[in-house]
C-alpha cells in the first residue's frame, strides 16, 4: 500500500512517543476501513479527509514526548493523583489538533488513549520498571481508577457526546476503556495479533475484531444502539468467513450510506499497534 509507514521493532522498547505517532499514521493510511477516513475515501465523514488527518497527526506528534516527560515528572505521585498532571497536557494537545484542523475533531479519542499510554510509559521508565503490555495497561487502569464514576456517574454533566451517552445508555466510552486498562484490546485483539502474516491484513483483522465487540460511542451518537448493533453484527459475520478486501469495501459502502463511523475502534487499533510492539 503506498505511503504506509511500518513500525520499526527496534524502537519498541525505547520510544512510546514515536510508536504512538507511527500508530496514528498507520491507522489512517490503512485501507479499506469501513466508515472511516482512509487513503481511498472519507467514509461517513463530510468534514475530514486524509490530508486533514495527516495535518492533525503532524500537530499532535510533538505532544507525545510531552506526555512521556509529564509521566516521568509525575512518577512518584500516587496513580490517583497523577491523572491531574496529564490532563492539561491532553487539553493543550487537543487545542493543537483543533488549530491544525480548523476546529474539526479528528483525533480527540486517539489523543486521550495514546496520551495516557505515553504518560504511563514515562512513569514506569522513571521508576526503572519494565515496559510490557501488562505493565502499561495496569498503569493506565491505575491512573484512571474511579474516572467513570467521577466524570460520568456523579457529575451528571451532558456537555460532550460521551457524557450524554452515559446518561442515556450507561456507555462509558473512551474513559471506561482506559479505566479497564484497555480490556477490549487485551481480550479481543492482542491474543490474535500474529494469526495473520500479512501486515495490512493483520491490522484490518484487528479492526474487525474491535468493531465486533467495542461499545463505540461514535457509532451510537451517529446511529443509536441500532447503528452499533449493525456494525457489530456485520463485523462478526466477516470474522466468521474467509473475508477478503472486497468484503471490507462493501462494508465501507454500507456504513457510509448509514452515516456510521467506528472512530472509537480506530483509536483502539492505534492503541493495539503500540501495545503489540511490547512483550506481553
Ligand atoms: C475523555 C475524552 C475523550 C472525552 O470525550 P467524550 O466525553 O466525548 O467521550 P467519548 O468516550 O464518547 O469519546 C471520545 C472519543 O473516544 C473514542 N471512543 C469512543 N468509544 C470508545 C471506546 N469504547 N473505547 C475507546 N475509545 C472510544 C472516539 O474517538 C470518541 O470520539 C477527552 O476528550 C477528555 O477528557 N479530554 C481531556 C484531555 C485529557 O483528559 N487527557 C488525558 C490523557 S491524555
Ligand atoms: N480514520 C479515522 N476516521 C474517522 N475517525 C477516526 C479515525 N481515526 C480515529 N478516529 C476517531 O473518531 C473520532 C471522530 O469521530 P466523529 O467525527 O464521529 O466525532 P464527532 O466530531 O464528535 O462527531 P460529528 O462528526 O458527528 O460531529 C475522533 O475523536 C478520532 O479519535
Sheet of most strands:
none
Instruction: Tally the beta strands.
Output: 0
Enumerate the distinct ligands.
dephospho coenzyme A, adenosine-5'-triphosphate
What share of the residues does DSSP label as strand, in percent? Answer: under 5%
Q: What is the CA-CA span between the terminal residues?
A: 29 Å
Outline the low-pLDDT stretches.
7-13
Give the integer mean of the pLDDT values. 94
| Helical amount | 55-70%
Rg of Cα set: 18 Å
Secondary-structure-based class equals mainly alpha
Large-scale geometry: globular
Q: Helices, strands, pairings?
A:
Elements lengths: L15 H14 L20 H24 L5 H22 L7 H19 L6 H11 L3 H8 L6 H9 L3 H7 L3 H6 L10 H15 L3 H23 L5 H13 L5 H14 L4
Helix pairs in contact: 1-2, 1-4, 1-13, 2-3, 2-4, 3-4, 4-5, 4-13, 10-11, 10-13
Bound molecules: dephospho coenzyme A (COD) and adenosine-5'-triphosphate.
The site of dephospho coenzyme A (COD) has 30 residues, from α3, α4, α7, α8 and α11.
Amino acid at each position: 500500500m503506498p505511503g504506509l509507514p511500518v513500525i520499526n521493532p527496534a524502537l519498541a522498547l525505547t520510544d512510546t512517543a514515536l510508536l504512538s505517532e507511527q500508530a496514528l499514521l498507520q491507522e489512517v493510511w490503512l485501507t479499506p476501513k469501513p466508515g472511516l477516513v482512509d487513503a481511498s475515501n472519507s467514509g461517513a465523514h463530510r468534514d475530514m479527509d486524509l490530508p486533514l488527518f495527516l495535518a492533525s497527526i503532524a500537530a499532535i506528534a510533538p505532544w507525545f514526548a510531552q506526555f512521556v516527560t509529564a509521566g516521568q515528572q509525575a512518577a512518584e505521585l500516587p496513580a490517583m493523583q497523577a491523572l491531574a498532571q496529564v490532563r492539561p497536557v491532553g487539553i493543550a494537545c487537543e487545542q493543537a489538533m483543533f488549530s491544525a484542523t480548523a476546529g474539526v475533531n479528528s483525533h480527540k479519542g486517539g489523543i486521550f488513549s495514546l496520551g495516557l499510554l505515553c504518560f504511563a510509559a514515562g512513569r514506569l521508565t522513571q521508576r526503572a520498571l519494565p515496559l510490557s503490555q501488562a505493565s502499561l495497561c495496569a498503569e493506565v487502569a491505575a491512573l484512571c481508577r474511579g474516572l467513570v464514576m467521577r466524570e460520568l456517574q456523579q457529575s451528571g454533566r451532558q456537555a460532550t457526546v460521551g457524557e450524554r451517552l452515559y446518561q442515556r445508555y450507561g456507555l462509558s466510552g473512551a474513559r471506561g476503556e482506559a479505566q479497564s486498562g484497555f480490556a477490549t484490546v487485551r481480550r479481543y485483539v492482542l491474543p490474535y495479533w500474529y494469526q495473520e502474516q500479512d501486515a495490512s491484513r493483520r491490522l484490518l483483522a484487528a479492526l474487525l475484531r474491535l468493531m465486533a465487540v467495542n461499545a463505540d460511542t461514535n457509532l451510537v451518537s451517529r446511529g443509536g444502539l441500532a447503528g452499533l448493533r449493525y456494525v457489530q453484527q456485520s463485523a462478526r459475520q466477516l470474522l466468521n468467513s474467509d473475508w477478503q478486501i472486497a468484503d471490507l469495501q462493501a462494508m465501507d459502502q454500507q456504513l457510509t450510506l448509514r452515516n456510521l463511523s467506528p472512530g472509537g475502534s480506530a483509536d483502539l487499533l492505534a492503541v493495539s499497534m503500540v501495545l503489540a510492539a511490547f512483550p506481553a
